[in-house]
Specification:
The chain has about 270 residues and is an alpha/beta fold. It contains eleven helices and eleven strands. The chain is about 50% helix and about 15% strand. The strands form two sheets. It has a seven-stranded mixed beta sheet, sandwiched between helices. The protein has a four-stranded mixed beta sheet with strand order 5-7-9-10. A hairpin with a 3-residue loop joins strand 1 and strand 2. The two termini are about 25 Å apart.
C-alpha cells in the first residue's frame, strides 16, 4: 500500500511502514511540505492496524539536514522574519511529537547527515541505526541560534547533560562511530546494509506481541520522568493487562511446544 505526499515517500512492507524523507536535492531539509507530510504519515501508520513498526529514513545522501536555511532566508528577505519561529513552530512541533509519541515502535535508519532538527527527529525515534556515512550535529549554534526542535529535552536523556551541552554549545559534527560510543545510535553498519538491517529489525519487532511492546514503550518513556516506585507500579499494571491476552497464552504455549509464537495483537 502506498500514500502520495509531496515531500515524503510512504510504503507498507508487510507489517512495517517505511517513511522516506524525499527532498534529496535539499538534503531532505525541513521545508516544502515535509513537516506536514511526516505528521500525516505517522498518524496514518499509527491508525493502520496492519502496521506494527515504523522505519524513517532519508532519500539520497542525507537523512535530514535540519531546517531549510534557504527557505528561511527567503522568508526573512520577504519580510516574514519577525515571528518566523512562531509561524514555523506548530508544524515542526507536530512533526517531532508525531514521531516521539507514536504508540508503535519507530526506528530511524540514519543514512547520512542528521543535523539540527534532523538529528532531533532521529533522537525522537525509539531506536537509531546508522550507516557508516552518517554524521550528526546540533548545528543551531552555527546559525547563531539556541537548540530547538526538542533538543533540550531529547539530547540530555541520550548522552547526559555535560555532553549535550558540549554538542549544543559547539555545534561539532560527530561521525557514526562517535555516535555509537555516545549511545546516540545502537548499531553502525555499512551503507549498503543499512536498510536491510533496519527493515529486518523492524520485521522482528513487528512479529512480536504488539500490546506488550506498546506498553513497554509507554513504561520506558514514563520511567524517564518518575521514580523507581512509580516505574514498578506501571510495570505491574502493564503485566496484568498482558497476562490475560491471547498473545501471552500463545507465548507460553509456544515455549512448551518448542516452536515460534504467532502473535496476533489480542
Amino acid at each position: 500500500m502506498s500514500l502520495q505526499f509531496d515531500s515524503l515517500l510512504y510504503e507498507r512492507r508487510g507489517a512495517v511502514a517505511l517513511l522516506t524523507f524525499n527532498r534529496p536535492q535539499r538534503m531532505n531539509a525541513i521545508g516544502g511540505t515535509l513537516k506536514q507530510d511526516i505528521a500525516q504519515a505517522m498518524r496514518h501508520a499509527g491508525q493502520d492496524e496492519e502496521v506494527r513498526a515504523i522505519v524513517i529514513t532519508g532519500a539520497g545522501a542525507a537523512f535530514c539536514a535540519g531546517g531549510d536555511v534557504k527557505e528561511m532566508g527567503e522568508a526573512r528577505a520577504n519580510g516574514v522574519g519577525p515571528g518566523l519561529q512562531e509561524k514555523l513552530r506548530p508544524g515542526r512541533d507536530a512533526m517531532l511529537l508525531a514521531i516521539h509519541e507514536s504508540e508503535k515502535p519507530v526506528i530511524a535508519a540514519v543514512n547520512g547527515a542528521a543535523a539540527g532538527a534532523g538529528m532531533n527527529m532521529a533522537l525522537a525515534a525509539d531506536i537509531r541505526i546508522a550507516s557508516r556515512n552518517a554524521r550528526f550535529a546540533q548545528a543551531f549554534v552555527k546559525r547563531g541560534l539556541p537548540p530547538d526542535s526538542g533538543a533540550s529535552w531529547l539530547l540530555p536523556r541520550v548522552v547526559g547533560m555535560a555532553k549535550a551541552c558540549e554538542l549544543a554549545f559547539t555545534g561539532d559534527l560527530i561521525d557514526a562511530e562517535e555516535a555509537l560510543r555516545l549511545g546516540i545510535v545502537s548499531r553502525v553498519v555499512e551503507p549498503e546494509a543499512l536498510m536491510p538491517t533496519a527493515m529486518a529489525l523492524a520485521a522482528r519487532i513487528a512479529a512480536g506481541p504488539p500490546i506488550a511492546i506498546q506498553l513497554a514503550k509507554q513504561a520506558f518513556r514514563r520511567g524517564m520522568q518518575g521514580d523507581l516506585k512509580e516505574a514498578l507500579a506501571r510495570e505491574g499494571a502493564a503485566f496484568n493487562i498482558c497476562f490475560d491476552t491471547e498473545d501471552a497464552k500463545e507465548g507460553t504455549a509456544a515455549f512448551f511446544e518448542k516452536r515460534d509464537p504467532v502473535f496476533r495483537g489480542r
